[in-house]
């Protein structure tokens, strides 16, 4: 809920693409600073004694709550100060406004009517189809990243290196997003996202042709695949803000439905989060016969007849993990390039929507004023 309203603020605080990109840049910067807590947790981690780690988690939660409270208080103070300065002007407009008694009062739309409006919003439909695949890919990487490290790189890298890669994968997307945002200012979000899909497809094909024995290339691909995928997810928040603007213009709203738009995007793409581990484990089981769910997590005892440990890490299992690693991004990239090519909210259309949105009042419709 906090993330949903935080993303909705991005659309409410600014309308121009430059200002939104700048806000997203600072958001990524401080998110990267906050992600350093992942490395800090390793200094107090002890699998035999969790007391220090628990204290660290409590302190981290307290600092986060304090920072969130202070930042929201400062934000409210800023808006209240701006509201007082404009209060006199609003009162004057109300006195001068001549309303038509025959005009009916504003009709509040129902949830069904709002869903019907979204069903006619073509760019929204194409976007959620693309974002559904993106959410699937993001959570696939999150769930299978440790599995790939174990079965593809465990023989060539140390445990500390694997832990570093895992921790770095939480910080790198924020740093990478800062660079992508600078590209968005030059080439637009649509073009940057499109080239990221092409890059994902190209890297996956190169990795497929190189094979699983190229250790350094495999290590770079596993890390970059997760970083680029997470970075693309963060860039897509800017696209949702553009959809908020288009929805405002198409349906002639008196106020932008930012939270509703972000909420609907999150709701429609939620199945991707659930399907990612299910489809991934099913594909791995079909190809290799290795089912990670057929194990007792507490006692590490298999519920099936015991197998020789040397047979678990066979060439078939390693090859299956490799094919899963490269074919999932290839499939996702093809689907996303297809859906993204039908997304038309860019170029002249986006400029027209932005221009109209910026010329309209944010909370009231255009009103007639007495000639003085």
TrEMBL record:
Its main location: membrane. It comes from Eleutherodactylus coqui (Puerto Rican coqui). It is a multi-pass membrane protein. It comes from the Eukaryota. The chain crosses the membrane at residues 23-45, 51-75, 124-145, 157-175, 187-210, 274-293, 321-343. It is found in: Membrane. GO terms for cellular component: membrane. This is Transmembrane protein 180. It holds the Pfam family MFS_2. Keywords: Membrane, Transmembrane, Transmembrane helix.
